[in-house]
Design goal:
By secondary structure, the protein is an alpha/beta fold. It has 18 helices and 25 strands. It comes from Streptomyces antibioticus.
């Protein structure tokens, strides 16, 4: 409160009181919204803390479904509300909420005072000297900002503004990294990853209770944590925000590796998945930034990539290893930019040089990683493939295709865009990183035909509090700036410039500085990239829930070939084990059939009776077929080709075709992919 000096003049007293009252009214307007509509408008709280941030959106949030019975609204598929509690608790400064009020929530880390000189992580990852005005509330001279990596961007009232502007789904990815925590200079807690994940989950529930209290009690607030797609639909139909918990961490379940030796077991994975599910987690990454005992990662580039590669060595004893890519997809180039993080390496140890033509991680999905993927499918969880190496992503898509499992998510542009159609064909969901409106429009255009083909919406992953830049301002002098106030996409709300304390944000001059500017950024996309992109985004909530719901309803298919009589053109002989045809239909992924070493070979199974067959899965050993056919017959004599390829690459293949009556199924090898014969661990035959 500003001091007021009174003048002792009786004939002026009434005027002074009036002036003071007006001053108090002005201050109340600046420091917090007026309660005039609180008693009648369900979307306005009856007890918002004072002072607090303004929302600067008027009008009732839209409810219900559209004419087709589908929910409407935007989806932020990748956000980190509570990463201020991660990495040792001092990497991201400021809180999402505080019972002590906004002045306590939005203040800088102690070591950033007086001028940001010790904002070390900023200049390690971003360059510059990290200097800034550390004061948050009420002036916010330097933060939050679109290019600040270490300051809170998800204050709850800013998230509220995003909801009021049309967002209806928010994925809160619980995030941390034990290695970054251990090497960072400032911390006030343990670096144990699961301890941090548990805390962030609890704080998400605490935030829900904090908001509920403003609206009169449990269940009444706009922020609703949901654990199944039906709950999410109900919440959105009420006009509220459905919040899903995800996990993005580098060593889930303790599954790090040291010198290529896994530090976890299948029992650890099952225990960890069960715990996360019980916390309410429904989507997660299996690897992030560092190769671990589950999968290899998609690299980071530039100085940040160098810093993370150093962390990779400190964590595992090995640097990233690359190879020439075998397909159109590729991992990010590692780059050779220097980083101050290299000072952490032991004397005499240097980050390797990498060949420009070798851009793919040699590491894919491990056996433990496959076990974790199957464990997530069993629990109906959705798998985030962003950050997985090209090799690991391809293997995951193979697994999902073999089971027709739709629960695959790419939430923030960290997969190769050439995977997009395979994701959509499965029934998965794709969101783009929160790029600037021009770049966002360009990337959206590249996949527009696929969205139309599969009839799906689009999402964005803001990655707020995720140590990344956000859209820069296009400038107030651009030919098509955002003009305030503007209407929300549904047309029912009016959105003005966002005010917190004495700071007013304008997306034209401030860019996407915090989560409250999501509606402004979407308006900028409309102006730059067109209404069509925004329309696709407005269908995002429905598409995300479609993927989630289909994952929940998924039933494991019956393998019609399991235990049935199999035969083959030949079988390799061994003194020590059997490679007979039945080994590929015994339900044991550790046994296999192997043929003689020549091109024209076949394996077939008698299903016992005629079925409508539409899918055949083949789990190849190293000796795979480059060219082969899947053939069907009702009598074992007359065969028809249902599917064929001349570009087999081994691993797990799925042949899909129109449902066809068949009692006999034959895999006919025409050309080997190796110098050996053909070898199959297991063949699955599935009905339409």
């Amino acid at each position: 409160m500003w001091p007021v000096t009174w003048t002792r003049r009786p004939n002026r007293r009434r005027r002074d009181v009036t002036v003071a009252a007006l001053l108090l009214l002005v201050l109340a307007t600046i420091l917090g919204p007026t309660p005039s509509s609180a008693a009648t408008d369900w979307w306005n709280p009856t007890a918002r803390p004072a002072p607090d941030s303004q929302i600067n959106v008027t009008g009732e949030p839209f409810k219900g479904t559209d004419a087709a019975g589908e929910v409407r609204g935007f989806v932020d598929a990748h956000n980190h509300l509570f990463s201020n509690e991660a990495f040792g608790g001092r990497l991201i400064c400021g809180k999402v909420f505080s019972e002590a009020g906004i002045a306590d929530a939005l203040k800088d880390c102690p070591e950033h005072y007086p001028d940001g000189t010790l904002a070390i992580f900023d200049y390690i990852t971003h360059g510059g000297d990290g200097r800034h005005d550390p004061v948050g509330w009420p002036t916010f001279a330097d933060w939050p900002a679109y290019d600040s990596m270490t300051h809170q961007a998800d204050y709850y009232a800013w998230v509220e503004r995003a909801w009021r502007g049309g967002q209806r789904v928010l994925v809160n990815d619980l995030v941390t990294n034990g290695v970054i925590c251990s090497v960072y200079f400032f911390k006030d807690r343990s670096c144990d990853e699961m301890t941090s994940i548990r805390l962030q989950a609890q704080l998400t529930y605490d935030l829900q209770a904090f908001i509920d209290k403003q609206y009169g009690g449990t269940g009444k607030g706009w922020f609703r944590i949901v654990t199944d797609s039906a709950q999410a639909r109900s919440v959105i139909e009420q006009g509220k925000l459905a919040v899903i918990l995800g996990v993005e961490t580098s060593e889930p379940f303790g599954c790090k590796q040291i010198l290529d030796i896994a530090q976890c077991s299948k029992a650890d994975i099952d225990k960890g998945l069960d715990e996360l599910y019980d916390l309410g987690v429904r989507s997660m990454f299996l690897c992030h930034k560092f190769d671990n005992a589950l999968c290899g990662v998609r690299f980071d580039s530039g100085g940040l990539g160098t810093a993370i590669n150093v962390g990779q060595f400190l964590s595992s004893g090995t640097f990233w290893k690359t190879e020439t890519c075998t397909g159109p997809q590729h991992d990010n180039p590692i780059g050779d930019a220097a980083s101050t993080a290299e000072a952490q390496l032991p004397a005499g140890t240097e980050v390797p040089d990498y060949a420009a033509g070798a851009q793919c991680n040699v590491r894919g999905l491990t056996d433990l990683g496959e076990y974790a993927v199957r464990g997530m499918m069993k629990r109906k969880m959705m798998l985030e493939i962003d950050h997985m190496s090209v090799k690991a992503t391809g293997q995951v898509l193979d697994l999902f295709e073999s089971a027709s499992y739709p629960g695959v998510i790419s939430s923030h542009s960290w997969m190769d865009i050439d995977w997009t159609e395979r994701v959509y064909a499965l029934g998965g969901f794709v969101a783009q990183y929160m790029h600037g409106s021009e770049g966002f429009g360009q990337e959206a255009a590249r996949t527009k035909a696929l969205r139309d083909k599969y009839g799906v919406g689009y999402g964005y992953g803001t990655d707020f509090n995720g140590v990344g830049d956000h859209p820069a301002p296009r400038g107030a002098t651009t030919s098509n700036p955002v003009k305030y106030p503007f209407r929300s996409v549904d047309g029912g709300s009016v959105i003005d410039r966002q005010i917190t304390g004495s700071r007013t944000w304008d997306v034209n001059t401030d860019g996407a500085a915090h989560a409250g500017l999501i509606p402004d950024w979407i308006e900028d996309i409309r102006l730059v990239a067109g209404q069509g992109v925004v329309d696709d985004l407005f269908k995002g909530a429905e598409s995300y829930l479609g993927t989630w719901g289909a994952s929940e309803r998924h039933q494991a298919g019956v393998n019609l070939a399991k235990g049935r009589t199999a035969s083959a053109s030949s079988s390799e002989w061994s003194l020590f084990t059997s490679y007979q045809p039945g080994r590929a239909a015994d339900g044991d992924g550790g046994t296999r059939w192997a043929s003689d070493w020549s091109d024209d070979q076949w394996w077939q199974v008698d299903l016992g009776s005629t079925h409508l067959v539409s899918r055949v899965t083949l789990d190849w050993e190293r000796a795979y077929a480059r060219s082969y056919r899947v053939e069907l017959s009702t009598d074992g004599t007359t065969w028809q080709t249902a599917w064929s390829t001349t570009a087999g690459d081994g691993g797990l293949d799925t042949a899909r075709f129109t449902g066809t009556p068949a009692r006999y199924v034959r895999v006919h090898g025409l050309g080997r992919g190796t110098e050996w014969g053909y070898s199959l661990y297991e063949v699955g035959v599935h009905s339409a």
